[in-house]
Specification:
The complex is a heterodimer.
Chain A: E1 4-7, E2 10-13, E3 19-25, E4 31-37, E5 43-51, E6 54-57, E7 64-66, E8 76-78, E9 87-94, E10 103-104, E11 108-112
Parallel strand pairs in A: 2-11
Antiparallel strand pairs in A: 1-3, 3-8, 4-5, 4-9, 5-6, 7-8, 9-10, 9-11
Chain B: E1 3-5, E2 10-14, E3 19-21, E4 24-26, E5 33-39, E6 46-52, E7 60-61, E8 64-69, E9 74-79, E10 88-97, E11 103-107, E12 111-116
Parallel strand pairs in B: 2-12
Antiparallel strand pairs in B: 1-4, 3-9, 5-6, 5-10, 7-8, 8-9, 10-11, 10-12
Classes of the chains: A mainly beta, B mainly beta.
């Protein structure tokens, strides 16, 4: 089955710790995206990548970092510089730059201990 | 700046009846796309329907249809014959021209739909 997988489903972060959220897709999509969702709100774009070895900041990139070494994978690292990381993180992909349809993974809920 | 507005925080509908979820948008770009996504309690965003700004006809996908009124800048989602499984958050989104020619989606705040038996 083709789709997007995210792991873990729940993640706990201690103060000053970096954590990495995994996102993998087997849809052969070129573009991948990371969004953050806070309670009762819509999604906000953190980072996106149109092709391998290239990525761009979204609206709220501060305190986050990404890499795109493989087409299938787009991991997101939440660094200690992100002071309010508690949120629901969604990864998405689309065939290309047209963004006609973005398909989403099941999400990772990040909580701070 | 581009913006999506969903004015209904919550909606109730009786099972088997139709419901309309409102969405208005603001953009100066003549070419844009509008999307609706469903988010059940599990959290995953499920794509429902898409409307391009140059599409002549309103989009339909099964029980979902998009009432696109370009002059009024509205793109309301109509769900016919509601089912209990339709209970979820619904988000309207618009394709936004990003710097460098790339596109991104901007989302509204969402509407929570509750379907009652």
């Amino acid at each position: 089955d083709g789709g997007i997988t995210q792991s873990p489903k729940y993640l706990f972060r201690k103060e000053g710790q970096n954590v990495t959220l995994s996102c993998e897709q087997n849809l052969n999509h070129d573009a991948m995206y990371w969004y953050r969702q806070d309670p009762g709100q819509g999604l906000r774009l953190i980072y996106y990548s149109q092709i391998v070895n290239d990525f761009q900041k979204g609206d709220i990139a501060e305190g986050y970092s990404v890499s795109r070494e493989k087409k299938e994978s787009f991991p997101l690292t939440v660094t200690s510089a992100q002071k309010n990381p508690t949120a629901f993180y969604l990864c998405a992909s689309s065939p290309g730059t047209s963004v006609e349809t973005q398909y989403f993974g099941p999400g990772t809920r990040l909580l701070v201990l | 700046a581009q913006k999506i507005t969903q004015t209904q925080p919550g909606m109730f509908v009786q099972e088997k009846e139709a419901v309309t979820l409102d969405c208005t948008y603001d953009t100066s770009d003549p070419s844009y796309g509008l999307f609706w996504y469903k988010q059940p309690s599990s959290g995953e965003m499920i794509f429902l329907i898409y409307q391009g700004s140059y599409d002549q006809q309103n989009a339909t996908e099964g029980r979902y249809s998009l009432n696109f009124q370009k002059a009024r800048k509205s793109a309301n989602l109509v769900i016919s014959a509601s089912q209990l499984g339709d209970s979820a958050m619904y988000f309207c989104a618009m394709r936004d021209q990003f710097s460098g020619g790339y596109n991104k989606l901007i989302f509204g705040a969402g509407t929570r739909l509750a379907v009652h038996p």
